[in-house]
C-alpha cells in the first residue's frame, strides 16, 4: 500500500488496521518519508518479491461448494444481454445457492423498475423494505441529478447495442440473480460473513467500482456479461467474461480472444439455456481449481476503483 504522505487517509494507519483484521502481511510505504517515488517503487518491488516467495509455499486445499461466494456483473450490455448472457449467470447463481453457497446481485441503478418482483422474492417483509429503500433511493438520487433524463442513464454502447431506457436494461440485469429467494440486502463491500443464499449489495452500475464491492464483500470469483465486448476484469479476483452474442464473441477474437464463453450460442446454435448454464458451471469450477480466465491470461486486470457517494472537492 503506497501513499504520498499528506492525504486524508494515512496508508500506514489503513495498513495497520487491515493487518489487525485479517492478519495478512500488508506493507505501507510513504513517498514523502521513504525516499521519494523511485525509492518507494524499488522497495515495493522488493516487498512484493518476498510476498511471492511466501505465496509460492502455500498449498491448495479442498473446500466444499458452500464456501463459495459468487459475484454477478454486467457491463457494455446490449439488447441480447437480458436474453442470453444474464439468464446464464442467473442459472449459475441458482446452482451456487442450491449447493449452499452465496451469490451477490448488485448495480442499483440497473434494478430500477424491478423492485416489486425482487420484493416478492424476499424471505421477509424486512428484506423487502430494504429492497424498496435501496432502489427508490437510487431513483430519487438519479432524478435529483438528471431530472427528466434520469430514465435514460445509459452509456452510448448500451444505446448502440439496442437498449432504450434504464428500465429495459434493468429487466435484463435482474436476470443475473436467477430465481432464488433474496435473503438480505448488504452495504457496498460489506462482508458477507456466514450469510448464505442470494444477497443484493448496494452499489453503482459502474463496472470496476461494482466489482471492487463484490470482491470486498467476499466474492472469490465473478461472471461478467457483456454485449459490446469490454475485456475489462479486476486485479483482485478472477472474472469470467461471457459474451451475449456470437458477433461480439467473434469480433473480439473468438475462441482465442477476450471472452471466456459465448452465450450467443443459445441463438446461433440453438442450445438451451440449461446447456449453456451447465457449460458455464463447468468453466467456473475449472477457474476455481486454478485455470486462468481470459483476462488473467492476457493481462486485462482492470482498475481498482472504490465507490464514493459524496461530492469530490
Keywords:
seven-stranded parallel sheet; 313 residues; 9 strands; hydrolase activity; hydrolase; alpha/beta; 2 domains; 12 helices; Altronate dehydratase; two-stranded parallel sheet; Rossmann fold
Helix content: 40-55%
**Tally of structural domains:** 2
The 3D shape can be described as globular
Question: What is the residue-averaged pLDDT?
Answer: 91
Q: Which CATH class of the largest domain is shown?
A: Alpha Beta
Q: Unreliable segments (pLDDT under 50, ≥5 consecutive)?
A: none
Estimated radius of gyration: 20 Å
Give the biggest sheet: 7 strands, parallel
Overall SS class: alpha/beta
Strands, total number: 9
Structure description:
One of its GO terms (biological process) is D-galacturonate catabolic process. InterPro entries: GD_AH_C, UxaA_altronate/galactarate_dh. This is Altronate dehydratase. The structure is a single chain. The protein has 313 residues and is an alpha/beta fold. It has two domains: 2-56, no CATH class; 65-298, 3-Layer(aba) Sandwich (Rossmann fold). It contains twelve helices and nine strands. Helix 3 (81-98) packs parallel to helix 7 and helix 3 (81-98) crosses helix 11.
